[in-house]
Amino acid sequence: MGFTRIHGVLHAEQCALDQLAQQFSTPLYVYSKAQLEQNYTDLSKAFDFIAHQICFAVKSNSNLAVLSVLAKLGAGFDIVTGGELARVLAAGGDASKIVFSGLGKTEADIRQALQVGIACFNVESAAELDRIEKVAAELNCQAPISLRVNPDVDAKTHPYISTGLKENKFGIPSDVVFETYAYAASLPHLKVIGIDCHIGSQLTEVQPFVDALDRVVLMIEQLNTMGIQLQHIDIGGGLGVRYQDETPPTFAEYAQALQPTLSRLGLKVYLEPGRSISANAGVLLTQVDLLKPTSYRNFAIVDAAMNDLIRPSLYAAWMDVQTVKTPAADLAVLQWDIVGAICETGDFLAKQRDLALQAGDYLAVMGAGAYGFVMSSNYNSRGRAAEVMVDGANAHLIRARESIASLWQNEYLLPKE
Ligand code: LLP
What we know:
It is a single chain. The chain has about 425 residues and is of the alpha/beta class. The protein has two domains: about 5-30 and about 280-410, Beta Barrel (Lyase, Ornithine Decarboxylase, Chain A, domain 1), CATH 2.40.37; about 35-275, TIM Barrel, CATH 3.20.20.10. It is about 30% helix and about 25% strand. The chain has helices spanning about 15-25, 35-45, 65-70, 80-90, 105-115, 125-140, 175-185, 205-225, 250-265, 275-280, 310-315; strands spanning about 5, 10, 15, 30, 50-55, 75-80, 100, 120-125, 145-150, 170-175, 190-195, 230-235, 270, 280-295, 300, 320-325, 335-340, 350-355, 360-365, 385-390, 395-400. The strands form three sheets. Strands 4, 14, 15, 16, 17, 18, 19, 20 and 21 form a nine-stranded mixed β-sheet that branches. Helix 2 packs parallel to helix 9, helix 5 (about 105-115) packs across helix 6 (about 125-140) and helix 8 (about 205-225) runs parallel beside helix 9. The radius of gyration is 23 Å and the shape is globular.
């Protein structure tokens, strides 16, 4: 399964990572198809007690091959842009299983989504209701909508990825939920079908999910008394993974904690997981380029950098770094900062890690399948990494390394004077 060490060499399923690094060069994202599939099916099984639809959060990993593997298992998708919608369709995803989240959907995005017949728009403001109403009227159809409510629950995660508090920009504040539902129900080209709530990402405890669900259920009951009957509840994503020593709930624990309330409610359940499906299904492979021990710190300069994986720089995220080959027993273990070659102090992948390193070694940054490649950039005019998906003993290139010439293909010089 996934990533394991076989005879001292880290493997993706049956493929040795050092061989993949040599074959495809580094930096290289490597995904395990089997791990991706297992995560999806395990989560789906945990929710078998109720009618449900898992909508994979495309923002966590949008490679077409990844989306297509999940689509074949029956996954729907949680999208936030017209670009993600186009990707899902290009990957063979089923439009009728798409939920459209995000707080700034453009008219063009909404039109496209209505034309292909998505399952639901998760709406975040009254202004957005007006915009969807306008586009639906133009197309002479009814848009299925749910409101993303903000339950004011502390997800206890990094402030940049916490979304369910009053001070966050997301969701309809709880004090205006009912008037906003009433307004939505009054608009002729909207069909109010659901309620949605996403309180943050990388949650490592189950309690905030339970608290948020309880608050949403109270809202649903109040809506019933107003004559607004819903067909589904969308419980968002956010389930955390283990990067270091976190002990996030398993899929089964997560489902069990929500089961009594969801069963009593009896509505169809939508889920929007990203990280818990994709994170441990991917690694970023990089090669140690130069070693720079100093009297104060030891730096291992590697060929991946913050442009390839920004999580450590942006969120001070701790990601596990392992040598692909178990080092020789006589090689000294030192404390290394694993850094890129970008001209910024913030360019690092890991700090103060006990490793036995030599120039030329391959390293794997674990848990990089979510919010890895998708957040990469061309900073310092670096082409983005290649991506490979392993399926048993076979490795498939699923995104070619970006060529340097392609970086300025959309740039133009000024006309000659
Ligand atoms: N649904 C909505 C409305 C979201 O905003 C998100 C994530 C998800 C679902 C999926 O959440 P997940 O299951 O992946 O936690 N770049 C950050 C994470 C940002 C998450 C944004 N929203 C990181 O690298 O940690």
